[in-house]
């Protein structure tokens, strides 16, 4: 792989702030969704269009659940949801599981998109990082990082990595496979993040405050 030029690196690594992402109301009125990545197609796409036409293989969004109600169904889709903020969320009606529970930030659950689920919010509103992948087309792995510790993650050309800071501040260093030193560094605050698309190399994550938390998603085509 040839060395990435500065313009190409800037195209593949983009910074986002949730405040700048349009909020799309749920059809049932129970919350709003902010879409931060959709695959394929690149960039950002209106959430309503995605829900209507379903032209994606993977999707990452942030959902604010403000009142109990039914979850939308997506046939042929695997769903994962990680609690970013809130003191609890329950989904009732999951086959073989009965009730799916999120008790604290960082808790993550996986469930089928076909499942007819109904949410309960025993302790008030909850914010989720939602990841959906079409079966047989894409797969996703989620991770949660907390505290003033450092960790590294390898990247490859076929992957998309989404980072989202839930609390505190984080420093992210990026080193491409063709470089012996870091080629870019970012400092991220709460509700901001990075989309890293098709970059081979490593990223280093460093929490800068005791309460720093960050969610990580890596999507790859099956």
Explain the layout of strands and helices.
Elements: H1 6-12, E1 13-17, E2 24-25, E3 31-39, H2 47-53, E4 58-65, E5 69-70, E6 77-85, E7 89-94, E8 98-102, E9 108-112, E10 118-120, E11 126-134, E12 138-146, E13 150-155, E14 159-167, E15 170-176, E16 184-188, E17 192-197, E18 201-207, E19 213-221
Antiparallel strand pairs: 1-17, 2-3, 3-4, 4-11, 5-10, 6-9, 6-11, 7-8, 7-10, 12-19, 13-18, 14-17, 14-19, 15-16, 15-18
Describe this structure in words.
With 222 residues, this protein is mostly beta strands. It has two domains: 6-15 and 141-221, Jelly Rolls (Sandwich); 20-137, Jelly Rolls. 6% of the residues lie in helices and 55% in strands. It has helices at residues 6-12, 47-53; strands spanning 13-17, 24-25, 31-39, 58-65, 69-70, 77-85, 89-94, 98-102, 108-112, 118-120, 126-134, 138-146, 150-155, 159-167, 170-176, 184-188, 192-197, 201-207, 213-221. Strand 2 and strand 3 form a beta hairpin. The radius of gyration is 17 Å and the shape is globular. Residues 41-53 have low confidence and may be disordered.
